[in-house]
Amino acid sequence: MNYPYQLRTFEAYQDAYNKSINDPEAFWAEVAEQFTWKKKWDKVLDWNFKEPKIEWFKGGQLNITENCLDRHLATKANEPAIIWESNDPNEHHRVLTYKELHFKVQQFANVLLNNGVQKGDRVCIYMGMIPELAIATLACARIGAIHSVIFGGFSAQAIADRLDDAGAEFIVTCDGAFRGAKDIPLKSVIDDALVGNKTIKRVIVCTRTRTPVSMLKGRDVWWEDEIKKVETMGNPKVESATMDAEDILFILYTSGSTGKPKGVVHTTAGYMVWTNYTFVNAFQYQPGQVHFCTADIGWITGHSYIIYGPLSAGATTLMFEGVPTWPDAGRFWEVVEKFKVDILYTAPTAIRSLMGFGLDPIKGKDLSSLKVLGSVGEPINEEAWHWYNEHIGQNRCPIVDTWWQTETGGVMISNLAGVTPSKPSYATLPLPGIQPCLVDENGTEIEGNGVNGNLCIKFPWPGMIRTTYKDHERCRQTYFSTYENLYFTGDGCLRDEDGMYRITGRVDDVLNVSGHRIGTAEVENAINMHAGVIESAVVGFPHDIKGQGIFAYVIYDGTHGDANLSKQDIIQTVSRIIGPIAKPDQILFVPGLPKTRSGKIMRRILRKIAEGDTSNLGDTSTLLDPSLVQQIVELAK
Ligand code: WT7
Description:
Bound molecules: 5'-O-[(S)-butoxy(hydroxy)phosphoryl]adenosine
Oligomer: single chain
CATH architecture of the domain at 89-241: 3-Layer(aba) Sandwich
Structural class: alpha/beta
């Protein structure tokens, strides 16, 4: 397969960009022609940002797995679709060709059907990074069930909230998951999440760690047993379900500025076109190359650039179960060497943490197969950029700094590898179809170059969020009400003298810890669940490795004894309510929180103190109790 819409020169990019702005419908129709449709669309785009209503390729019918699997069989049946590398360097890797993946997806689709899953049903997937996770995800799409993948690091309580919100009736999980030296008991976490649950009809458990699990009669079944039943049936084919272009493909929960995570909804055709188009263009994928995205499939990066983008392009996608630093900090480079990886896509947090181990882990590793490097999830600082460029890319691999969000489905602002210019710490230029703009607090567009503002997008693109599950008003409020007729990203942004974009970070109450989004309100709610806590306020602070760390100011009822133990208890509580990723790095017990007379917490001041910068705390005169600030500063010393 070649990609007629792959932009190979800067001029081609400029032409495509101009066309995408001047005649978006014609532009996207031409791209969409390249896919397999069961029925062609009636209208390319129907939209308004007021409701919002976003409909791409309306009237069209298709199935994304037909585009990710069936259509490659004629030319790529025996080429690797998924290469899987174990957490354990001594365990043999696995390769699934397109033919094998096609077979296994249908086999598991049969398992889903046998267990009563129907089109439109929500299936929660809570698994480690094994090929069965990709198989389960694609099997849902095969039969038109809506998948909702939950990252393996979320707690039972966090899962329970998500199951409830999605109204999920089915779960696919594993006995456990390996991650570095750890063995995470996934099934047991699911059991805890299901205490009191009344909607889940079936839990399908795949064997990975052989950790003992309890299987509830009538509810829990083994993946392997269910596959055997399908084999006994003679592995019947499962024709791909006919989906409308705007039928929901998946829900993925992400954090916002309120305490309740929201279910971001992506639909079938637009998401497929967008992940494919951005994959082929940002990374400049060439047939036969090995693409290694190190994200977990529990996050959008894994959905879009391990599964749907690469597979829809007939690419070879590498799935890695482990972590960069186990058994040692050379693990990524070992994987790159072993599979002659062409494209490596990872997060600044991973780069910074590996930088800390020096150059020894890289020595003797053959990285000469690498052609393109990618960065995602948070701003990449210049130091990390240069290290990545010099020591991993050996000064010959373009680095794509890809800015995007769970809500955008795929890459929005990024250089195209080797095709458009790069600039350290800059995401650079918008992809075709993306119309970024910067606005001030009043929503007035800031024109020209060399300016700062809040980043918005003016016009729909195929991969954009359609709604927040069962709560359309929340979608409108969060993204489309701050500024009229604009999608608001929540990010601050600089446009330099050359018109290049540099993302400066979130301007709302959302933290970005190790490239993972966590709402401050979510962490506060979790802390407040602890019996000894009266009130809390959470802010981010700069962290050398994680990008941002979590700093919690807590008003604590100290009658329960030892302060250090109490802090440990609070950390435990957060871990139980949300998951280990949300654990505060620092907790400070304070007598009160700096509030205005109207009761609003002045986070600006708390952020400054957390940063250790107390030289200028700004105007504190509007505070209810200005003396409190000095007390907190003293405690923080
Ligand atoms: C937030 C979205 C994109 C998939 C992974 C994270 C930040 C993302 C970049 C980048 C600077 C970035 C933004 C964005 N972000 N990529 N290249 N440079 N910041 O998805 O969890 O939805 O988080 O991550 O702040 O809003 P997410």
